[in-house]
Amino acid sequence: MDPYLLRKLNRERAARRAVIHLTDLGDGRDRVICEGDPVAGPLGESIANAFRSGKSGVVEVEDRKFFLNVHLPPARIVVIGAVHISQALARMAMVAGFDVCIIDPRTAFATEERFAGIDLVAEWPEDGLKTRPLDPYTALVAVTHDPKIDDFPLSQALSAGCFYVGALGSRKTHAKRVERLKEMGHGEAEIASISAPIGLDIGAASPAEIAVAVLADIIEHLRRRPLRGAAS
Q1: pTM of the predicted structure, to 2 decimals
Q2: Domain segments of the chain: what residues?
Q3: Considering only the top CATH level, what class is 76-223?
């Protein structure tokens, strides 16, 4: 690979931005395509599909073959609240290939015994997120029911463009949350992107079932997300 392309590829990956190394299998010419770069026609459609799926492979477009080497940042889930739902969600999310972090300042809940092998941060989100900044490849799940803990990371997630933002609570609880987020400077369209009540509507009742609904919702948002520079 050309040194310039290699530097560009490494720079984008280090910044947790999606990038594809495209090679024309006919003449060997290659280029690096960042998410949001305009690529017209059927090849552009194939590239968009690759950005969403994260799968590398050969595509054939107009009798030409291209190899798409896809580099997506590892998708991660940051859960605010070390509750029963979080215990089930963390285990399932790791099996599904997500990096998981649990943040909760309540040390009675945020214990190694309850979250063995999980990145557990027993700090206020204002502090814990300083070393774990949110970004478009992060899902933010707020489940404490406590505005003092949930509101700041929800606001940060909206500002950072997280691909998924979800919050536990009834419609009445969420209506109050909406007003608080408006006071924090967020617009109606931003706030409307929050999944609340959280998760897919599958009639979930137990903490484990709610965790299934949340994880399914996260996966759907990840795989069907609008790409940067593309229309929603």
Answers
A1: 0.87
A2: 3-71, 76-223
A3: alpha beta
